[in-house]
Design brief:
124 residues, Ubiquitin-like (UB roll), three-stranded antiparallel sheet, 4 helices, Ring-1,2-phenylacetyl-CoA epoxidase subunit PaaB, PaaB_sf, PaaB
Length: 124
C-alpha cells in the first residue's frame, strides 16, 4: 500500500468535496503539503474558488485504509444476496394487469345510466 509519503517534508493529501447539502462527497484531486493545515488551505485556494461547494474534506493518504486481499475474499462470500432482489415477484405484473381488466371503467359505469329507463315525473 502506498504510504503517501514523498520525502521527509511533504505528505500526500486527498481532497473530497460536496457540491450541495444533500449531495455526496466526491474525490477531486491529490496534493502535496507539509502538514494538514497547509493542505486544507491549498485545497481551498485551488478548488473552492473555482467550484461551488458546501464542504471539503482533506485527508492524509496514509490515514486511508484499504482492504487487504484476504478481506476481499470475505466480502465476495457475503455478496450472495439474491434474496434482496425482486425477481421472484415478476408474476405480479401479469396478475395486476388481469385485475385491472376486470375493474369497471368510467365509460362502462356511465353506460348503465343510459340503459336504465328514465322515470317520468308525475303530474299532481
Amino acid at each position: 500500500m502506498d504510504s503517501g509519503k514523498t520525502d521527509d517534508f511533504y505528505d500526500v493529501y486527498e481532497v473530497f468535496s460536496k457540491r450541495s447539502h444533500k449531495g455526496d462527497f466526491q474525490h477531486q484531486f491529490s496534493l502535496l503539503a507539509p502538514n494538514a493545515d497547509m493542505a486544507f488551505i491549498m485545497a481551498q485556494e485551488n478548488f473552492m474558488r473555482r467550484e461551488p461547494v458546501v464542504d471539503i474534506w482533506v485527508v492524509k493518504r496514509s490515514d486511508i485504509r484499504r482492504m487487504k486481499p484476504e478481506e476481499r475474499d470475505i466480502v465476495q462470500r457475503l455478496d450472495n444476496k439474491d434474496y434482496r432482489l425482486t425477481k421472484g415477484y415478476g408474476y405480479l405484473r401479469k396478475k395486476w394487469r388481469q385485475y385491472e381488466q376486470k375493474m369497471l371503467d368510467e365509460k362502462e359505469i356511465m353506460s348503465w345510466a343510459e340503459d336504465r329507463p328514465h322515470k317520468e315525473k308525475r303530474q299532481p
